[in-house]
Amino acid sequence: MINLVKALSGGFWSTLAVVVVISAIAIAVAVNAFGLQVSGGLALYFVIWWILLFAVLPFGVRSQVETGEVVRGSEPGAPALPALREKAIWTTLVASVVLVIVAAVFPLAGL
Questions:
Q1: Most buried among 23, 26, 60, 73, using CB within 10 Å?
Q2: Bridge-partner residues for 63, per DSSP?
Q3: 91, 48 in Cβ contact below 8 A?
Q4: What is the dihedral angle through the alpha carbons of 60, 16, 53, 71, rounded to the nearest 10 degrees?
Q5: What's the pLDDT at 81?
Q6: Cα(25)–Cα(62) distance, rounded to whole angstroms?
Q7: 76 contacts 70 by C-beta, under 8 angstroms
Q8: CA Rg, the chain, in Å?
Q9: Residue 74: pLDDT band by 50, 70, 90 thresholds?
Q10: How far apart are the C-alpha atoms of 102 and 95, rounded to whole Å?
Q11: How far is Cα 20 from Cα 35, in angstroms, rounded to an integer?
């Protein structure tokens, strides 16, 4: 799975396509299976995605000092390789699962 995410995050357009397709599938499942409106599914997914992005960002980050490659004029604690495209795909995968779980729990909570 890790190698597949790395392969899919090779370029901007492939990453964007993966994020859009997986997001659309998750929102369609939440709308059709659990009776959410499309606008409600989009809004809920947007909130979940952003919260999870900030949770995923610190994973695997090594500073320039740790890698021994400090770029002159930059902060030594800045990430050497942030891997933002991979993190966008991981965030999308996790957010899709969380969206479906949250949409399934809504009727149980009376919402």
A1: 26
A2: 79
A3: no
A4: 40
A5: 86
A6: 33
A7: yes
A8: 17
A9: confident
A10: 10
A11: 21
